[in-house]
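Lab manual, section 2.4: Encoding a predicted structure.

Procedure: take the sequence of the chain (356 residues), apply the prediction step described in section 2.3, and record the output as structure tokens. A sample record is shown.
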Amino acid sequence: MPQPKILIVDDDFASRLLLKKALQDENYQLSTCSDGTEALEILNKHRYDLVLTDLVMESVGGLELLEKIKSFDADISVMLLTGYASVETAIEAVRLGAIDYIIKPINISELRMRVKKAFEQLDLKRRLQEAERAITFNATVARANHEINQPLTVIISAVDMVKLELEKAQVENGRVKSYLELMSKASQRIAHILRKMREISNPKIQDIPHGMKMIELHPDETIPLAHGSYILVIEDEENLRKISREMLESEGYKIITAGTGKESIEIFQKDKNAIGLVILDYNLPDANGLEVLESLQKIDPEVRVLLTSGFNVGDEIEEALQRGALDFLSKPFNRNQLLQVVNDLFEKRPRPEKKN
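Recorded output:
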């Protein structure tokens, strides 16, 4: 929590000085003023966490000041100080939202303890508000993702199918292709924003014109360049193959999967120009990673391969890296680790353009 700010309001100079001195060694930012009118002017310009105010003052009294403060900022805590205690006044102060009520003459130790307690309550309240806001935000984002991703998937898939149909019909229409590319980029942009919203764990509110507020996103990042390329995931364990596919597709990549070395080589032989990256499990039932790597390189010397393994195969991995594999990701890995490596490979080492 940032250094707490306290505004002391009392029309008696000696009382103001006493309160300030009593709290000046407690790591608070302290300000003082002489009446309720001045206090309201200050609070309109500056944000304070706690207001310590005398109950009886000539212009605006403590209860009136309390009521006015709560009317424009309910999160500011107010503590009343008075030498004219009564049950009725205390009840009214609590009803209006006072956090505490201290009787003069003030005991310094008691004042410090109550102020400290007030800030503990304020901190707890803020934490609860943040937790509630996060829960509400996450529920809203989850709902929005579900409702938007369904039609968005249809749009993205439909754009790809239209492109395919144009290719089959050998239709060359630059304008139509440019429109389809715009639709594809816009769809990927929507998917990118939805992903970023899912990644927000602590939503922050920022002010925008006309008194409105909106969730603050992290600075926008460049969408990986190779969203149009396919990734060939070679993994014999079905569940891992499935979850790897889902993790990569959640980032916008297009995925082809294979469960054996033989199957992966056949797929690569057929679709090598469409495959921008191969994620290769080193230990397959019918071949090891080095054998598959060499077979892929015979088909395309520029094949880009990311190795994975859950076994201790340090020497073999090192040899594969020396022979042209780009990187190695050890199992177990999570979504962020996988995407970081894949995104880095696409962004930092894009696949060279094929020469016809």
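Check your result against the sample. Residues 219-228 have pLDDT under 50 and may be disordered.
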